[in-house]
Amino acid sequence: MKVLLVGDGARENALADALASSPKGYKVYAISSYINPGIKEAVDKTGGKYFKGDINSPIFVKEIIKEVNPDFGVIGPEDPLFHGVANAFREEGIPVVGPDKECAMIEKSKVWMRELMWKYNIPGRLRFKAFEDIRDAINFILEYGGSIAVKPSEQIGGKGVKVVADLQAYLSNEKRNAITKGIDGIASYVNDKVKVIIEEKVDGPEYTLHVLTDGYTQLPLPLAQDYKHAYEDGIGPETGGMGSISGPNNGLPFINEEEYEKSFEIVKLTAEAIKKEVEKDYIGILSGQMMLTGVWGPTIIEYYSRLGDPEASAIIPRIQSDFGEVLELLATRRLSKAKIEVNPTPSVVRAVAPLGYPLNKTMASNHVINVDMQKLKELGCKVYFGSVSLEGMQLITKGSRALELVVIDNFDKASEILDKCFNYVSSNTKLIFRHDIGRTIQDQVEKAEIVRYTYKSRERKGILGASADWSPNGGLW
User: Fold this and answer.
1) Helix, strand or coil for residue 452?
2) Which parts form a coiled-coil structure per UniProt (predicted)?
3) Residues 6+ apart with CB under 8 A from 100
């Protein structure tokens, strides 16, 4: 069978590897904006063909579909989904892993997502207020004087994703100027009519639940936790993710089975709500980026309409069943036949990026990076290539996370191995990575216990999700 993969990052490298390793003998074809060496290895190994072009263009993708005539497709990133590439596959009669653009609105628009959750009374929903006029948003913050989170209304690849303001009723001119500058910065990225969304601020350990859904059956994957900030100890600018952890088993050390099931129920209810709202089945991966909070327990921060990255690198290597076949069953709407068998041992992922990421893509681009694959393999480290282009015999950085290094072992041992792995990656520019990923587990456990006590107390009192200063329809009184 022929499968056409769309995308060019580490997540797509992990998907390509799973497809190429399947006992079913898939022939992997791929479309990328540059030649990813990991994806190319999967394509070459299976006798497929690699196409270079605009992965966000339904017209271009249709041309490749007609040439390849694949049995099914797999779309990795969100932008092709937003542009209707999944629609293009289905218009050509090809089943595909990936929701139509109408369904992908759950990720593209935070306002659409929040309104959907309130309309269909889905648990784990945050209160919010949306603004078309930036001045109105600033005035609201200055007058409200409480703890809130400020976000762009659109999904914009990690830029300005969250600005948290803990504001007093009295604000100095310096604080006012900082708020104004921060919101203006967010709004400058947004093309939508609604520029800014302001949400109630919540706190707790974050985690992601990815759910496969073909419109009939829902199948959850193991939990993962993403580490967003660029530098050690969770400081610095937000990134697409500098690493992740998954396990042991289907969970995480700080999320219990009851919370896992509640999270799964929230995502299932959301998939059903999307179908009612747009009158289309959601076929693909619906991922809840969640937080365990004192307000709700499992709470939705945002949704992905695809696998997270680097979460995919933590999850896919732990799946012991044939994940390539699972993707086929998902695309062809036979997911009820699929089984997910998981390695109980945890995984730790750490990304390597060139200096300049995430704020200066130009600075982080066009550097040679060297990887001693044999040494990494000897250490037990799996490598997924991200924003790296194979040009001749050299690997050239493209401005984002270049590599994701994966070790499956207990958290302490995996962390020790990954520390050694960094010695076998070099470049003609400085590389950034985090040593602390996989080493903060106990902190997360203690944080979860505090939050759990709070939400369980609220649950017993019948006030789960209630708040004094936010109205039941999602806004302020």
Assistant:
1) helix
2) none
3) 84, 86, 87, 90, 280, 283
Residue 161 has pLDDT above 60, yes or no: no
CA–CA distance, 192 with 328 (Å, rounded to integer): 35
User: What does the DSSP 8-state code read for residue 126?
Assistant: P
Res. 200: pLDDT tops 80: yes
Q: What pLDDT does 477 receive?
A: 37
State the burial class of residue 260 (Cβ atoms within 10 Å of its Cβ: 0-12, 13-18, 19+): buried
**Residues sharing a CB contact under 8 Å with residue 177, sequence separation 6 or more, in sequence order:** none
Residue 330 predicted with pLDDT over 90 = yes
In Å, what is the CA distance from 251 to each residue of 125, 411, 419? Answer: 22, 14, 24
Strand order in the sheet with 365-371: 388-391, 394-398, 365-371, 425-427
pLDDT of residue 187: 56
Mean pLDDT of the region 81-88: 98
Place of tokens 């999270």: 263
Q: CA-to-CA distance for 45 and 297, rounded, in angstroms?
A: 45
For the chain, the distance separating the N- and C-terminal CA atoms, rounded to the nearest angstrom, is 57
The amino acid that residue 367 corresponds to is H
For residues 111 and 154, give the distance between their C-alpha atoms in angstroms, rounded to a whole number: 8
| CA–CA distance, 398 with 386 (Å, rounded to integer) | 9
d(CA 285, CA 88): 18
How much is the pLDDT for 378? 97
**Helical (H) or strand (E) element with 387:** none
How does pLDDT run across 176-189, given as a tens digit for each residue? 555 555 566 655 55
Q: Which of 309, 211, 220 is nearest to 257 (CA)?
A: 220
Inform me whether the pLDDT recorded for 164 exceeds 60: no
Distance separating alpha carbons of residues 284 and 164, to the nearest angstrom: 32
Which 8-state DSSP code applies to residue 306?
A: S
pLDDT (0 to 100) of residue 475: 55
Q: Enumerate the β-bridge partners of residue 355.
A: 357
pLDDT in tens, 58-67: 999 999 999 9
Q: Which of 144-148, 373-377, 388-392 has the lowest mean pLDDT?
A: 144-148
The rounded mean pLDDT for the chain is 91
409-254-236-309 Cα dihedral, nearest 10 degrees: 60
- Listed residue (222, 253, 229) closest to 243, CA to CA: 229
Residue ranges in 316-356 assigned as alpha helix (H): 323-331
> Which residues neighbour 179 within 8 Å (Cβ) at sequence distance 6 or greater?
138, 141, 142, 165, 167, 171
